[in-house]
Amino acid sequence: MKIIRRKAIIIESSLKEIPKTPIALKYSKKLYEFCIQNAEIYIQTRMNDPDLEKEMKLGFEKFLKCLDAYLDFYDKKLSEHEEIDIKFHIYSGVTLKYGAKMCANNKFHKRPIFSNIAVEMNPDEIFEYTSDNGVCFAQVLLITEIIMNYEEPMHLALVQWYDFKSSVNPYLYECPLLEKTNIFNLIEIEAINDIIHIIPRFNIDNEFLVNKFLF
Fold first, then answer.
1. pLDDT at 93 over 60
2. This protein's superkingdom (predicted)?
3. What is the CATH code for 21-210?
4. What's the whole-model pTM score?
5. What are the residue boundaries of the structural domains of the chain, listed by start?
Protein backbone atom coordinates (compact mmCIF):
# COMPACT_ATOMS: atom_id res chain seq x y z
CA MET A 1 0.00 0.00 0.00
CA LYS A 2 1.54 3.28 -1.09
CA ILE A 3 1.70 6.33 1.14
CA ILE A 4 -1.70 7.94 0.70
CA ARG A 5 -1.45 11.65 -0.01
CA ARG A 6 -4.32 14.08 0.22
CA LYS A 7 -5.02 13.82 -3.52
CA ALA A 8 -6.02 10.20 -2.93
CA ILE A 9 -8.85 11.23 -0.61
CA ILE A 10 -12.12 12.50 -2.00
CA ILE A 11 -15.03 14.29 -0.42
CA GLU A 12 -18.45 12.88 -1.24
CA SER A 13 -19.68 14.48 -4.44
CA SER A 14 -22.89 16.45 -4.27
CA LEU A 15 -23.87 14.70 -7.49
CA LYS A 16 -23.78 11.30 -5.82
CA GLU A 17 -27.06 9.98 -4.49
CA ILE A 18 -26.77 9.96 -0.70
CA PRO A 19 -29.45 8.38 1.48
CA LYS A 20 -28.58 10.41 4.58
CA THR A 21 -28.96 14.10 5.35
CA PRO A 22 -25.61 15.95 5.72
CA ILE A 23 -25.11 18.09 8.81
CA ALA A 24 -22.39 20.55 9.84
CA LEU A 25 -19.35 19.26 11.74
CA LYS A 26 -19.75 19.54 15.49
CA TYR A 27 -16.78 18.95 17.79
CA SER A 28 -16.96 17.41 21.25
CA LYS A 29 -14.79 18.41 24.21
CA LYS A 30 -11.53 20.21 23.43
CA LEU A 31 -8.72 18.23 25.06
CA TYR A 32 -5.61 20.24 24.17
CA GLU A 33 -4.59 23.53 22.61
CA PHE A 34 -1.11 24.63 21.58
CA CYS A 35 0.63 26.78 18.96
CA ILE A 36 3.35 26.14 16.41
CA GLN A 37 6.00 27.98 18.43
CA ASN A 38 5.85 25.51 21.33
CA ALA A 39 4.56 22.47 19.45
CA GLU A 40 7.61 20.22 19.89
CA ILE A 41 7.89 20.85 23.64
CA TYR A 42 4.14 20.51 24.17
CA ILE A 43 3.93 17.27 22.20
CA GLN A 44 6.87 15.77 24.09
CA THR A 45 5.15 16.65 27.36
CA ARG A 46 1.98 14.88 26.25
CA MET A 47 3.94 11.81 25.12
CA ASN A 48 5.55 11.59 28.57
CA ASP A 49 2.14 11.54 30.25
CA PRO A 50 1.77 8.05 31.81
CA ASP A 51 -2.03 8.32 31.70
CA LEU A 52 -2.13 8.77 27.92
CA GLU A 53 -3.16 5.73 25.88
CA LYS A 54 -0.71 4.32 23.31
CA GLU A 55 -2.94 5.37 20.38
CA MET A 56 -2.93 9.03 21.38
CA LYS A 57 0.80 8.96 22.14
CA LEU A 58 1.39 7.54 18.68
CA GLY A 59 -0.77 10.27 17.18
CA PHE A 60 1.25 12.98 18.91
CA GLU A 61 4.50 11.28 17.87
CA LYS A 62 3.49 11.40 14.19
CA PHE A 63 1.71 14.76 14.29
CA LEU A 64 4.38 17.21 13.09
CA LYS A 65 5.71 14.88 10.40
CA CYS A 66 2.20 14.30 9.04
CA LEU A 67 1.45 18.03 9.21
CA ASP A 68 4.63 18.81 7.28
CA ALA A 69 3.65 16.29 4.58
CA TYR A 70 0.11 17.66 4.44
CA LEU A 71 1.26 21.28 4.04
CA ASP A 72 3.98 20.21 1.60
CA PHE A 73 1.26 18.93 -0.70
CA TYR A 74 0.14 22.55 -0.95
CA ASP A 75 3.75 23.73 -1.35
CA LYS A 76 3.59 25.16 2.17
CA LYS A 77 6.56 23.95 4.17
CA LEU A 78 6.02 23.83 7.93
CA SER A 79 9.30 25.70 8.47
CA GLU A 80 7.94 28.61 6.43
CA HIS A 81 5.13 29.07 8.94
CA GLU A 82 7.11 29.11 12.17
CA GLU A 83 6.75 32.90 12.40
CA ILE A 84 3.03 32.78 11.66
CA ASP A 85 0.42 32.20 14.32
CA ILE A 86 -0.78 28.62 13.88
CA LYS A 87 -2.98 27.12 16.58
CA PHE A 88 -3.87 23.47 17.04
CA HIS A 89 -7.02 22.29 18.80
CA ILE A 90 -7.24 18.59 19.67
CA TYR A 91 -10.76 17.27 20.30
CA SER A 92 -12.17 14.12 21.85
CA GLY A 93 -14.69 13.62 19.07
CA VAL A 94 -16.62 15.08 16.17
CA THR A 95 -20.00 14.45 14.60
CA LEU A 96 -19.54 13.53 10.95
CA LYS A 97 -21.59 14.97 8.12
CA TYR A 98 -24.20 12.19 8.28
CA GLY A 99 -24.56 12.15 12.05
CA ALA A 100 -22.08 9.41 13.06
CA LYS A 101 -19.86 10.20 16.07
CA MET A 102 -16.11 9.76 15.53
CA CYS A 103 -13.92 9.56 18.64
CA ALA A 104 -10.26 9.78 19.58
CA ASN A 105 -10.64 9.90 23.31
CA ASN A 106 -8.24 8.75 25.99
CA LYS A 107 -11.09 8.37 28.49
CA PHE A 108 -14.67 7.89 27.33
CA HIS A 109 -16.69 6.68 30.32
CA LYS A 110 -13.31 5.69 31.82
CA ARG A 111 -12.33 3.68 28.74
CA PRO A 112 -10.26 4.68 25.68
CA ILE A 113 -12.02 4.82 22.32
CA PHE A 114 -10.34 5.43 18.95
CA SER A 115 -12.74 5.03 16.05
CA ASN A 116 -12.13 2.92 12.97
CA ILE A 117 -13.26 4.55 9.74
CA ALA A 118 -13.97 3.89 6.07
CA VAL A 119 -12.54 6.30 3.50
CA GLU A 120 -13.54 6.29 -0.16
CA MET A 121 -10.56 6.63 -2.48
CA ASN A 122 -10.23 8.75 -5.60
CA PRO A 123 -11.66 6.66 -8.49
CA ASP A 124 -8.90 7.93 -10.82
CA GLU A 125 -6.29 6.34 -8.54
CA ILE A 126 -8.21 3.37 -7.21
CA PHE A 127 -5.97 0.81 -8.91
CA GLU A 128 -2.95 2.17 -7.02
CA TYR A 129 -4.35 0.84 -3.74
CA THR A 130 -5.69 -2.41 -2.38
CA SER A 131 -9.25 -1.57 -1.39
CA ASP A 132 -12.65 -3.05 -0.64
CA ASN A 133 -14.68 -1.87 -3.63
CA GLY A 134 -12.94 1.50 -3.56
CA VAL A 135 -12.93 1.89 0.24
CA CYS A 136 -9.87 1.84 2.51
CA PHE A 137 -9.80 1.53 6.30
CA ALA A 138 -7.98 3.39 9.07
CA GLN A 139 -7.97 4.05 12.81
CA VAL A 140 -8.27 7.62 14.08
CA LEU A 141 -5.53 8.65 16.53
CA LEU A 142 -6.15 12.40 16.79
CA ILE A 143 -8.93 14.79 15.78
CA THR A 144 -7.67 18.31 15.16
CA GLU A 145 -8.69 21.75 13.98
CA ILE A 146 -5.78 23.81 12.64
CA ILE A 147 -6.19 27.58 12.58
CA MET A 148 -3.73 29.58 10.46
CA ASN A 149 -3.48 33.27 9.65
CA TYR A 150 -5.33 34.24 6.49
CA GLU A 151 -6.52 30.67 5.91
CA GLU A 152 -9.77 28.81 6.48
CA PRO A 153 -9.52 26.40 9.45
CA MET A 154 -8.45 22.87 8.55
CA HIS A 155 -10.57 20.07 10.00
CA LEU A 156 -8.37 16.98 10.00
CA ALA A 157 -7.95 13.53 11.49
CA LEU A 158 -4.59 11.85 11.99
CA VAL A 159 -5.03 8.22 11.01
CA GLN A 160 -3.09 4.97 10.92
CA TRP A 161 -3.99 2.94 7.84
CA TYR A 162 -4.97 -0.70 7.65
CA ASP A 163 -4.08 -2.81 4.62
CA PHE A 164 -5.20 -6.23 3.47
CA LYS A 165 -3.27 -9.00 5.21
CA SER A 166 -2.96 -10.98 1.98
CA SER A 167 -3.46 -10.12 -1.67
CA VAL A 168 -4.12 -13.81 -2.39
CA ASN A 169 -6.82 -14.30 0.27
CA PRO A 170 -8.00 -10.79 1.17
CA TYR A 171 -11.30 -11.93 2.76
CA LEU A 172 -12.20 -14.26 5.60
CA TYR A 173 -15.83 -15.14 6.33
CA GLU A 174 -16.69 -12.61 3.57
CA CYS A 175 -15.05 -9.84 5.62
CA PRO A 176 -11.87 -7.88 4.76
CA LEU A 177 -8.89 -9.41 6.59
CA LEU A 178 -6.58 -6.55 7.59
CA GLU A 179 -3.33 -5.65 9.30
CA LYS A 180 -2.17 -2.31 10.68
CA THR A 181 0.54 -0.58 8.67
CA ASN A 182 3.19 1.97 9.63
CA ILE A 183 1.58 4.53 7.33
CA PHE A 184 0.13 7.66 8.94
CA ASN A 185 -1.61 10.65 7.35
CA LEU A 186 -3.65 13.70 8.12
CA ILE A 187 -6.88 13.54 6.11
CA GLU A 188 -9.86 15.85 5.86
CA ILE A 189 -12.67 14.87 8.20
CA GLU A 190 -15.22 15.49 5.45
CA ALA A 191 -13.54 12.77 3.36
CA ILE A 192 -14.52 10.11 5.91
CA ASN A 193 -17.45 7.96 4.85
CA ASP A 194 -18.50 6.38 8.11
CA ILE A 195 -17.52 4.71 11.36
CA ILE A 196 -16.94 0.95 11.05
CA HIS A 197 -16.48 -1.97 13.43
CA ILE A 198 -13.09 -3.70 13.23
CA ILE A 199 -12.30 -6.58 15.57
CA PRO A 200 -8.91 -8.17 16.36
CA ARG A 201 -8.57 -11.89 15.71
CA PHE A 202 -8.16 -13.89 18.88
CA ASN A 203 -4.55 -14.89 19.69
CA ILE A 204 -3.24 -13.65 16.31
CA ASP A 205 -0.93 -10.64 16.27
CA ASN A 206 -1.83 -7.69 14.01
CA GLU A 207 -4.75 -9.34 12.28
CA PHE A 208 -8.21 -7.79 12.11
CA LEU A 209 -11.61 -8.34 10.51
CA VAL A 210 -14.05 -5.69 9.33
CA ASN A 211 -17.39 -6.71 10.82
CA LYS A 212 -19.75 -6.32 7.87
CA PHE A 213 -22.57 -8.13 9.64
CA LEU A 214 -22.96 -5.65 12.49
CA PHE A 215 -25.67 -3.60 10.77
1. yes
2. Eukaryota
3. 2.30.30
4. 0.84
5. 21-210
